[in-house]
Amino acid sequence: MSRYWSDVVQQLVPYVPGEQPALAHPVKLNTNENPYPPSPCVVAAIARELGATGEALRRYPDPLARRLRETVAAHHGLTPAQVFAGNGSDEVLAHAFHALLKHDRPLRFPDITYSFYPTYARLYGVQYEAVPLADDFSIRVDDYLGDAGGVLFPNPNAPTGRALPLADVERIVAANPSSAVVIDEAYVDFGAESAIALIDRYPNLLVVHTTSKARALAGMRVGFAFGHPDLIEALDRVKDSFNSYPLDRLAQAAAQAAYEDDAYFDGMRRKVIASRERLTGALQALGFDVVPSAANFVFARHPAHDAAAIAARLKEKEIFVRHFKLPRIDQHLRITVGTDAECDTFVAALRDLLG
Ligand code: PMP
């Protein structure tokens, strides 16, 4: 705390991302990164953009990321006017809080969800209601029908991994015609149905995607929002009042190449899904309760062992999982699906540790 800090900064409760350990070979199952490298086309596209001399870097990038947005729009059967590109989906979500979710009536999101949401709400002065999930961690659709200042949830939800069927998402979108409904689909490619299919019918629906998970580009920071052009314009107004060039040249080239190599993307997510099922079985064999996951992580608790203690003991072995010291979930661990070899190392360490 310093006397130079503004009142706003004194009140902030910043989000704390998972640890990025400075170790040569950690088994890193704590931030839901992809265990595989991005498509070779991505590496080639970055090299092409850079050229032999880096000449292109003299110039600012396209502030509108037009070629990237055209590629991604075509991929999803949308027009470029229905696509916003930002510096990671975190930035896209931040702009959505500012542009679409701040109203007199409170925003609704689940009590157990992406822990950046309350941070953004505080940053932008957005009132919100944290709506309890059911005991099995599913979203109760009836709690979101009507009269909110806005609705926001991830599908699949994080850190639970549970997915909501598209018909239920549609009921929520349809029941909130006078407010924006934002579906954060960071993990959708690992097993949920995308609400992009609803965009042409619902002008209040915004769907947020990222290249950080299923496209293995967390290090490039590229995210998107899809929705009616009026919603996209609201995000553009915030962007152009904040940072006109959120995506650098290499990020634009890399993300575009990632969307052009569908076969690679498909292979990668299939491998992750298969490893998730294998990991789930191994955890159940060790006595864990595992929430059914449609994401690239699993959320699990052991009835007889303290979650924080397990995480701490694993860390001594350079194995990193995520533990949230939060109500209702402080006995759970969120474990990112790694390669089968990483998952095997993790499971063997757990077996040792649990005795
Ligand atoms: N939404 C959810 C639910 C997430 O878990 C994450 C990853 N922490 C993000 C959004 C942000 O991802 P990124 O900024 O890397 O696109």
Model description:
This protein has 355 residues and is of the alpha/beta class. 37% of the residues lie in helices and 14% in strands. The protein has eleven helices and twelve strands. A seven-stranded mixed beta sheet has the order 2-8-7-6-5-3-4, sandwiched between helices. A three-stranded antiparallel beta sheet has the order 9-10-12. Strands 1-11 form a two-stranded parallel sheet. Strand 5, helix 6 and strand 6 form a beta-alpha-beta unit. The structure holds 4'-deoxy-4'-aminopyridoxal-5'-phosphate (PMP). Residues 32, 88-90, 114, 154, 158, 184, 186, 210, 212, 218, 223 line the site of 4'-deoxy-4'-aminopyridoxal-5'-phosphate.
Describe this structure in a few short sentences.
By secondary structure, the protein is an alpha/beta fold. 37% of the residues lie in helices and 14% in strands.
Task: Supply database-style keywords.
355 residues, alpha/beta, Aspartate Aminotransferase, domain 1, 2 domains, three-stranded antiparallel beta sheet, globular, binds 4'-deoxy-4'-aminopyridoxal-5'-phosphate
